[in-house]
Amino acid sequence: MPEQVKKVRRRGQALLNAIYRAVLAEVAEVGFRRLTMEGIASRAGTGRMPLYRRWDTPEALLLDALADALAGTGGPVDTGDLRQDLLVHFRRMTEQVLAGDLGSALGAVMGERGRHPDLVVTVRDRMLRPHLAAIEDSLRLAAARGELDESAISTEVCAAGPAMITVHHLINGAPPVEAELAAIVDRVVLPAARGGGTGVARGVI
């Protein structure tokens, strides 16, 4: 049963933060299809009017909450070593994106591909694509350092690690642990990136 929180008078950023936390927890518990403004307001300890003043639907509120939670999780990484860069990117995915209510909320949204394809595309483009762009940037920096041939950089190489991490999370109900992340880097991504390529390097995103 969704948690109900005693109403507390809050305003501004404090109220917004409470609403964002509430919608992520609510969709993680009840699922996307049962998400309502009433349930979100109850969990946030506020009335429905503050929600309706800003968002027309629970889906619009959820998108803003996801964007807020994911802000800054896909930034650039440059340790000077490609292996370490990739590990930092993948740890961010497991620790900041797939963990807790945020990971459950993302899973609930992505599971609606058949019913709400536009919503899934929005989540992918606004929130997940920056992670692939950041990985591409790290690969291009590594190429500039001579660690790999730039022509080997492709959509598949950039997406291989995140795809394996996501599948692991869906199948096992938890993100990969550190040893598994290292295996993804050492046995999949680095061999693919350093295996060479032909033709002109392509933009990935």
From TrEMBL:
Residues 13-73 form the HTH tetR-type domain. Residues 36-55 bind DNA. SUPFAM superfamilies: Homeodomain-like, Tetracyclin repressor-like, C-terminal domain. Keywords: DNA-binding, Transcription, Transcription regulation. One of its GO terms (molecular function) is transcription cis-regulatory region binding. InterPro entries: Homeodomain-like_sf, HTH-type_TetR-like_transc_reg, HTH_TetR, Tet_transcr_reg_TetR-rel_C_sf, TetR_C. Pfam families: TetR_C_11 (PF16859), TetR_N (PF00440). PANTHER family: HTH-TYPE TRANSCRIPTIONAL REGULATOR RUTR (PTHR30055), TRANSCRIPTIONAL REGULATORY PROTEIN-RELATED (PTHR30055:SF225). This is TetR family transcriptional regulator. It comes from Spongiactinospora rosea.
